[in-house]
Each structure stands twice: as structure tokens, then as C-alpha cells.
Amino acid sequence: MSTEAKFSGDSVIVGGGMAGLSLAIALHKAGLRVAVVDAAPLDSAMTSEFDGRASALAYTSWRMLDSIGVAEHLAPHAQRIEDILVVDGRPNDGLRPGGPGRDSLHFDRREIHSGEDGEPLGWMAENRWTRVALARTAEACGLSVFAPAKVDSMSRQGARARVHLDDGSWLEGAVVIACDGKFSRLREQAGIRTTGREYGQKALVATVAHALPHEGVAYEFFMPAGPFAILPLPDNRSSLVWTEKAAAADALRDMGPAGFQEALEARFGDFLGALTPEGPRWTYPLGLKMSERFIDDRLALVGDAARAIHPIAGQGFNLGLRDAAALADCLVEAKRAGLDLGSPAVLEGYERWRKGDSALLGIGTDFFNLLFSNDHASVRAMRGFGLGLVDKIAPARRFFMRQAGGETGDLPGLLKGEALSL
């Protein structure tokens, strides 16, 4: 067993995913001494075969990535979201060709960001390209990364916390940040309980090329089995997030090319022309998991370690970045003031900042998933009326666009596009 730390600094971040690396880069560039530990080499998550997912980046999230130097590497692979169309169902429930139905809600970025080249509602990027951009930025700025390295446990030594690896070595800092996903080992070891439930749904994720341009429009169709999202990617391509009951989603994943083509055309419609599926298909189980606490002794939870929600609002990665921005703000301010970064006062400030927003969004996505997955005629009529009403009220549309963009409440500097420094 090692008698000397492999790293000793301000913070150790466990988990080199997108939220973890974003936070690490932000803290490192602000002047803190940070290390990242991950069980897999960073380049193992950069291929199209890794998981196939793409993420919607809210405009405040893009500001953060721009402020820490990641956006310049990601921009060539990202697609602006100019409009969002939320639709209750599809014509004939998607059993015949067609496009969006009449019960819809249209969000146009020009209502909140004027000008042809104004800020979009967000950006779409395949996760593999986001990981590439983060890895390039981390390498360029000299971030300390230990990967592959498997974390065994965490311990506290006075005003320091240690992350013990399975080879007997360890790293230490004033605070440990768990970015190790919804099945967080550090959260479990800290005894932080979670609440939530499984939905019995899975999201089928796939990429599709189409003959006609999407013009930067993101579509979300609410179907009885769950949402069907068509999210714009560069070059006349879109990412699909197709929610079904678990068995049906797995059946779609395992279909042969001809069978999947037929099912895709029926559900997608013909409004973007001929469709060509690209690459593999994946399915992911959906559920809600909320941590009862976001902090413990010298430990902070970020991203899916703090909460995992339904993708219905496209907010998963954005919530992780909001966590990262708020925690970075707290830690940099504490460092500037000469405070102990892992003290209860500093970490409780982070928890107060983030827990309420997370709870509201978790409850909201849970409610909307139940509401829009209900096929009862009276419920469908109520949904259609509600969508139509909001669509006619400009202040309501602008409110929801700013909510989705993350521009609410006390905004951390990074989400305003401001770089942090000591």
C-alpha cells in the first residue's frame, strides 16, 4: 500500500463523464488544484459505438462550455436549435404518413433572442463529440487525470478527504466530488438515501438521416407509450429518443433492418422525406431517482449522482452542468476568501443553491410523463387545450423558453458565460 498520495490538492473529482470533466476544467482554469479519477480511459467513450446518445445543451449550458474553452472544439459538430415544436400525438397516432398534428406548442428562439444570428434555444451534439471536446480541453490545459483507475472508497483525515483506489494508492483534497452516475458508489458508501421509481419504460436511441432539412427544429411528440423526440443534428440528420414500454423498446432495438424501417416510417411520418437509419440502436431504462442530500462530510454530489430524471425535457446533462457551475462558484469564492473548501458552510451553500431546482424539475418531469402518457379522451382534450392556450400567450411561451434554457433564479457566473478566477 502506498504511503504517499498520488495527488494532493484542492479537490478530487470521481467520474470523468461530461459533467465531471466540465467541472474539473472550470475549477482548474479558475486556479484550483484538481484531479479527475475514472474507471475507464477517457478515449473509450468517444466512439459512435459507445452509447449513441446525443444531448440537448441549453443556451446557458453552451455559455458555460464556451467560457471554459470547450465550445470551440464542439461547435463544428453541434447543431443550433432554432425552434421547438411540442405536439400531443401524431396524426392517426402515427399509423399513417403525416407530420405534426394540430395540438401543438411552438417555441421560437427569436422571441427571446432577436436577430438572425442571435443565441439559439440550445444546441444538439452527439455525446461522443462532447466527450472529445472535453478531453481535448482537459489535455490542453494540463488537467490531472487518473484513468483507468478504480475507486474503492473514501475516507476523511481531519481537514482532508482521501479517495482510495483498488491498487492501494490514494488521492486527497479538501473536498471530494462524486460525479459517478446514478448508481454512485460514493453516495452509497456515504449512506445518502435516494427516492424514486422505475417507469417501466425504455428509451430507444438511434440516429436517422432524412432527405429534407430539419431547419434546426426539435420535435417532441407525446404518444400514449411515452415521448417520441426528433432532435436535429448536423447534415440532415436527427437523433431519436423513442420511449416505449420496456418490452416494446427492446423489440424495436432487436428488429431487422426492414422491420425497423417500417416501424420508423410509421412513427416518424414523412414530413422530412425519406428516412435512413444510421448505426446501432440502444435502449436505456427510464426512472426517477432523487438523492435526499446532495452533500456529506467533505463530499458533494453532482449530476446523475445527485439525481436522475426522465429525458422528457432534455434536461439531464443541463442539470449536471448547473450543478457544476454552482459548485464551482461556491468553491472558487471559498478559495478566494481563504475558507476550507470542504467545510459544512461551503457545501451547504451549494446544496441550498441546487436542491430546490432539482426537486422541482424531477417532480415536473414525473408529472408530465404521467400526464402525456395517458390516452384517456378527456385527458387528451385537456392536454390539447393547454398546449393551444400556452401557444397563444407570448409571455407564457417566453417563460417556458427561459426555464428550459436554464435562465432562472440566481444564475452562477459560468452560466452567464463568465470565466471564474481566484
TrEMBL record:
Record SUPFAM superfamilies: FAD/NAD(P)-binding domain (SSF51905)
Cofactor field: FAD
Keywords: FAD, Flavoprotein, Monooxygenase, Oxidoreductase
Similarity comment: family membership: Belongs to the UbiH/COQ6 family.
Domain FAD-binding: 12-351
GO molecular function: FAD binding; monooxygenase activity; oxidoreductase activity, acting on paired donors, with incorporation or reduction of molecular oxygen
Residue ranges of coiled coil: none
Name the UniProt record assigns to this protein: FAD-dependent oxidoreductase
GO biological process: ubiquinone biosynthetic process
Organism: Marinicauda pacifica
Pathway participation: Cofactor biosynthesis; ubiquinone biosynthesis
Organismal lineage: Bacteria, Pseudomonadati, Pseudomonadota, Alphaproteobacteria, Maricaulales
GO CC terms of this entry: ubiquinone biosynthesis complex
A Pfam family matched in the record: FAD_binding_3
